[in-house]
Write a structure and sequence with these properties.
Blueprint lengths: L11 H15 L41 E3 L9 E11 L4 E11 L3 E10 L4 E11 L4 E7 L5 E10 L6 E12 L1 H15 L1 E9 L10 E9 L3 E5 L7 H8 L4 E4 L5 H4 L9 H12 L3 E9 L7 H4 L3 H18 L6 E6 L6 H6 L3 H12 L4 E6 L13 H13 L6 E4 L2 E2 L4 H12 L5 E8 L5 H17 L3 E6 L23 H12 L4 E5 L5 E7 L1 E9 L2 E9 L6 E6 L1 E2 L2
Parallel strand pairs: 9-24, 11-12, 11-19, 12-13, 13-14, 14-15, 15-16, 16-18, 17-18, 18-19
Antiparallel strand pairs: 1-2, 2-7, 3-6, 3-8, 4-5, 4-7, 9-21, 10-20, 10-22, 22-23, 23-25
Helix pairs in contact: 2-12, 7-9, 12-13
Amino acid sequence: MEDAGSLLLLPPPARRVLIILALLLLTAGSLARRASSDAVRYDYRAYTECKPHPEPALYNGGILGWASKTTEFRIDDEGNYSPAFVLYNLSAATAYSFSCWVKLEGPASAHVKARILTLENAASQCIGTALVRNDCWSFLKGGFTLNAASQTSVLYFQTVSPDASTISIKSASLQPFSPDQWNQHREDRIQLNRKRFVNIHVSDGNGSRVVGAKVAVHQITRDFPFGSAISRTILGNKAYQDWFTARFNAAVFENELKWYATEPSPGKEDYAAADELLRFVQSNDVMARGHNIFWEDPKYTPRWVKNLTGSQLRAAVAGRIESLLSRYKGDFVHWDVSNEMLHFDFYENRLGGNATAEFFATAKRADPLATLFLNDFNVVEVCDDVSSSADSYVSRLRRLADAGVTFEGIGLEGHFGRPNIPYVRAVLDKLGTLRLPVWLTEIDISSSFDQKTKAAYLEEVLREGFAHPAVDGIMLWTAMDANASCYQMCLTDGNFSNLPAGEVVDRLLGEWQTREVLGATNDRGSFNFSAFLGEYKLSVTYQNLSAEGTFSLARSDDTKHINVRLRVSA
């Protein structure tokens, strides 16, 4: 798995011929054996640091241990390199997890993509990306599912740098997981990270264990933040408010805090809508994210701000932070300080490379209790956008850290087309190594799909996000406007009857909470159960004895032990 080769670009007519010739040579014998994935557990390990030596292959290489390798694979796409792996009998029902260590010859660094090409239709998709250097080994992790089964496929590598001469691959691995296995990994992680075992021990006034006491446990609040965007259209709309508060414990304002909304012209601030939305969420015990302080995309920068330069622009941005965060100090748990800065650079282009670091420092002084985030798109949604690869995100965080920023949160928007779930998990694995809060901040599915397809894709994304240990919260981008439409995806119609996506959300919310647990103490005077994290009400009765109280389940590997002493009922 250490083969390396050089780039050779070919004109399009020669493409398929050379691919087929190479494959015919490689398939002169019998087809390679398929590796079993029985009892294999998903490996969440990932690395963001470049190492002098690669780590061993995950899963001992998986099915790549039986794959044919070639150093003669060529394709006409820009920047294709050997080696390549020829794979047989890939299934459409299987999730494939891919990883390898990569080193570059040529430029100091460049993005390298791993791609899978199915020979039947010559369709190629990106399955993983890494920012690779020439002086150490970088870890690439990704994955894929196929739309249709493929008898013969090629896994190959591509660099976006025209100056690169060769890439080297070591410790490559491709591990298949059946749908049942993939889902079981999710359930195992939910039990480990979103639930906790509880042992309730009941005794009487003398301290003797009570056998057969009736125990009732009811969940009061959920620990995991799961919410949606809202807009001013919810104000005064009781049906909308009731529907929202019955489901969500977190909110984000779609547009009402953005600079173009709060200060459409210089010095003329308008926080009326944001103030009303804040009163609504606070009166219903709903936490709120602050979105956003600055948006780097000039398309969404206030028109009057775009005309400022130098000291005038610097004064305006300082005033923006002071006005916004002094008004709402302590009200929002998060602030997206710089929105979409991996793709755009309006402020840094005009104020210098330290502008973002200054924004974070000023915001932290203004509201020290809020967690400060970057927030961007295409990090988990697609593999081909190297501007927002996991490594690009990490590189940007490290540059901010070098400038003195104590970084606190990673925002991943999540505006999906057809989601590549194994790739989503791989990206979360990588970002999770930073030990920072990771939030899926704007989840929706493209309006190009029909309602049932959107719902199916949404369910996969939500299940993956909720189960992943790195994810600390999920927000849907499903605010409804006055015309009962949404940015890309609505959960209900205008009468707040569920659409298929809304049915998915309700079903998952039902799965992800412990509404009620009923039982009786055993011969040890104990009652044991597993419950989702959150706040609970407890009631225990035995004959004329009873006790009531509340308890909290926070994340921990330890069993929660609760001792209950029964008293004579009044």
